[in-house]
Amino acid sequence: MAPDYQRLGRGGDFTGMALKYQCAKALTVLSMAAIVILAFSSMFYTGHTDIQYAEDNDVAYSVPDHKSDADKPVEAGTGDYEMPATQGKCTLPSSLALPKSEDGSYTPTSPHYTILDILSAVPEDDYDQYCQGWRVLNSANPPYKYNLNGECGNWQNSYIALHKKRLEQLEALQTHSYDMLREQDKPQYIVYKCIQVATNGNRGCGGLADRMSGMISTFFHALMTDKAYFAYWDGENPFSLDILFEKPHINWHYDMDTMEELFTNPPDDAYLTNEHVDLLNAKWATMETKIFPEGRTQNLSDLWPSSLVEVRSNRGYIIHTFESSDIYPDILHKMGLTPENAFGCLTDFLFKPTIGSRRFIDAYKNLLELDSIFSVGIQIRTGDNQIVNPQDDELTVDSYSYFLTCANQLTEAYRKPHHKRVIYFLITDSSKLRDEMMALNDDPAMQLKYLGNEDATILTTGLPIEHLEPNQVAKYINITEPHIETEEEKVAGINSAVIENWLLASTTYRVISPQGYGKLAAFHSNVDRATYSMPRPDRKDKAPNCGNPHAAISFADLSRLWSLG
Ligand SMILES: *[C@@H]1O[C@H](CO)[C@@H](O)[C@H](O)[C@H]1NC(C)=O
Ligand SMILES: *[C@@H]1O[C@H](CO)[C@@H](O)[C@H](O)[C@H]1NC(C)=O
């Protein structure tokens, strides 16, 4: 790692004016929340109520002493928490603080108080649903919903079994028990490897979108060719992948030293060969020659024959395979995978955010999923200068209001009568812009002007803003007030990028900047043609009319841009 690796951390909103504003706002919301809670209890309970506080979370249950509508049973989730014997009306705490992550992994700051503002104006059924969900996500082991209704196909168990067999074969290779192996098919292993810290002339591994494209497509290859899959980030770039994600189904941890020792210094044996595949920054045409050298009947198993394949890549080729192969689309469809769900289903199979991030994600997702909510995600990438030199950030709402115009057009076109509230979930790399956009919520005239609607609210996470490879950025931007980040700040920054991306995938529509980050969320949403790509500010007159369904950008088009797909 370069010793002169310096960068500015970004404390989100935690500076000067913003902090003051937040404190004042938080106090108002606190008192408002108290009023809401009082209002709820007086609405439902005429008799005396017995308020109980659950021990390991902050949700209050008021148990009525007579039968009422509020007394109807609550559906239990699939988590291993227990519902109270008597079901009562659920009320949320006055601030949505998350518990400290039990396993020592990252604990995010509290979900934004705007969530409580929004919940104060949804129908009571939705409030109750959210409140129950809040309790579940705060429990010791909140459920991770994956493929509950087969929406991700039927391939998971056989791949899990294959991976397990390959790991057993690896043990045999390590102990040189070749006799056992001779009876079986020859094991193959493939690893997505991110080593390099970026330096001049070497783009390193790229940002989150680059890395996810490389990692997911490498797994796609493993799945198509019966290879065991591993994923690896160097501990300094910016930290080990094992810290960022849990492994819900297969153990993709890569023991690099052991593997390289085993496969690169082999005794003369056909089992132990390795090769490096480099797909970094390849364009579509190059990918065509690298993945489909024999054209539409290419067998992916014939591509990289070594027993260990080490891949350096920031490129996707899943949708590409659907388009360029005559063989695989059929195989994939039988597995339950389509161009629309493949990227998301593979991502969620491999990578489960750690518990704190998951709780934070669910705190927003549960809101976005309510019947009474209409949601549009807005992702505005303003450029790296805002991240590394926040003190120079002078962006205003006006410079990017065309993103809001697109969101307003979507609301006008698709909002239904049951959508009582409209949420514009905003992600941006400029904390100045984020503050300015949030301030629209508090000024009715501005809200009407920019959000087009008094039911619309800008929602953000308030999490720190971070670029994955800041010293890459330092090549072309002078960092005027350098700050060396602590390990905690790095972990918080990258978790924020993951959380916000997963949430952008959860909104009904997306309005994105053209680069990889927004595209990643579009693919992860598993819904084609619900994403609108906005031009840069100097070409904003080219912005589409988002009320026109044909203006949405398709997965096929997205897969030909940036990190491909
Ligand atoms: C690719 O070739 C292997 C043998 O090398 C074979 O087992 C496999 O079925 C082939 N895959 C496809 C999709 O034809
Ligand atoms: C960075 O600052 C140095 C010295 O102030 C200047 O010479 C250089 O051109 C600047 N580089 C960029 C990319 O602005």
TrEMBL record:
Q: Which UniProt keywords apply?
A: Membrane, Transmembrane, Transmembrane helix
Q: Which domain of life is it from?
A: Eukaryota
TM regions (residue ranges): 26-45
What is this protein called in UniProt?
Fucosyltransferase
Please give the organism. Umbelopsis ramanniana AG
